[in-house]
Amino acid sequence: MFQSIMLRNGGSETVASIENIRDEQLPNGNVTVRIGHSCLNYKDALAITGRGSVVRAFPMVPGIDFAGTVEQSTDSRFTAGEMVLLNGFGVGEVHWGGLAGKARVDADWLIHLPPVMSDRQAMQIGTAGYTAMLCVMALERAGVTPNKGEVVVTGASGGVGGIATLLLSKLGYRVVAITGRPQEADYLHALGAKTILSRGEFEKPGKPLQKQRWAGAIDSLGGPALANVCAGMVEDGVVTACGLAQSIDFPATVAPFIFRGVHLIGINSVYRNLADRIVAWRRLADTIDFGALEAMTTTIPLTEVCSTASDIVDGKIRGRIVVDVDA
């Protein structure tokens, strides 16, 4: 038996608790993984608190990420003892996820852990860092190089924004960080941000076209923040949109796209193809500053997941939360 976070439908609310699970209760799949570490993302927090329509079927083990060791496999691509990781593919939403001692999944959802990483380091990066790298790669493909100008990152105190700031800075970009927590200025400067702006400047509807400021952008907020960022891009600027922490709405006009040729690129990290996943994780292995990553990470046991999830949704957590499932 092993422990897991279990979500059950309590009628008007989601009930989250720690339960003991037997191997035979695991869902169908051709690879069983002994999980070493998972992590707690914004989507996980929404699922656990019931404050977002994330879970599609109950009961559900949440956790959109995990890394660990193959225990059993009937797929030739993976053998017992190999280290693997998983991001997305509906795990933690429609298929039992990573906030547990074990998971049984489809081999198509797994990739091998980069050899320079431990399972804990992979979960320090997690979906947040993997998504951030997909955004960086999209900016690069669209021609946004460090000499083109500043890159703005919204939600910079969060997981995606923090790692995006770290990656962009390491790659030579000048990063402007937008945060709703001005007290985190020293933290963001340590990650590599050169300029810090208040989220309050971007939370209300603004002019369709604003002062040209940024060559690139990584947005995890959506809503008015995304609209205002688009309105402030330079000609042929590129915006990558990967989250909706502020809102699912996009209260914008077509003006930036028509009059300045701004490009808006959506980043779907959940069902990304295998080739892009492997490239992104290889880039992360080569680029990430593991020392800086450690400084932005808090590690918790399963027993603290539910209370921490509430703090994440309430915007009280910065950086990354790693879950040691055996602690």
Quickly list its features.
28% helix, seven-stranded mixed β-sheet, 9 helices, 15 strands, alpha/beta, Rossmann fold
Note down, in words, how this protein is organized.
The strands form three sheets. Strands 3, 4, 5, 6, 7, 14 and 15 form a seven-stranded mixed beta sheet that branches. Strands 10-9-8-11-12-13 form a six-stranded parallel beta sheet, sandwiched between helices. The radius of gyration is 19 Å and the shape is globular. The model has no long low-confidence stretch (mean pLDDT 94). The chain has 327 residues and is an alpha/beta fold. It folds into two domains: 2-113 and 296-324, Alpha-Beta Complex (Quinone Oxidoreductase, Chain A, domain 1); 128-266, Rossmann fold (3-Layer(aba) Sandwich). It is built from nine helices and 15 strands. α9 links the parallel β14 (297-301) and β15 (320-324).
Largest sheet: 7 strands, mixed
CATH superfamily of the largest domain: Medium-chain alcohol dehydrogenases, catalytic domain
Total E-strand runs: 15
Beta fraction:
25-35%
Q: What do we call the CATH topology of the largest domain?
A: Quinone Oxidoreductase, Chain A, domain 1
Topology, please?
Blueprint: E1 2-9, E2 14-21, E3 31-39, H1 42-49, E4 65-73, E5 83-87, E6 102-105, E7 110-112, H2 119-141, E8 151-153, H3 159-170, E9 175-179, H4 185-191, E10 193-198, E11 214-219, H5 223-231, E12 233-241, H6 255-259, E13 263-266, H7 274-287, H8 290-295, E14 297-301, H9 305-313, E15 320-324
Parallel strand pairs: 8-9, 8-11, 9-10, 11-12, 12-13, 14-15
Antiparallel strand pairs: 1-2, 3-4, 3-6, 3-15, 4-5, 5-7
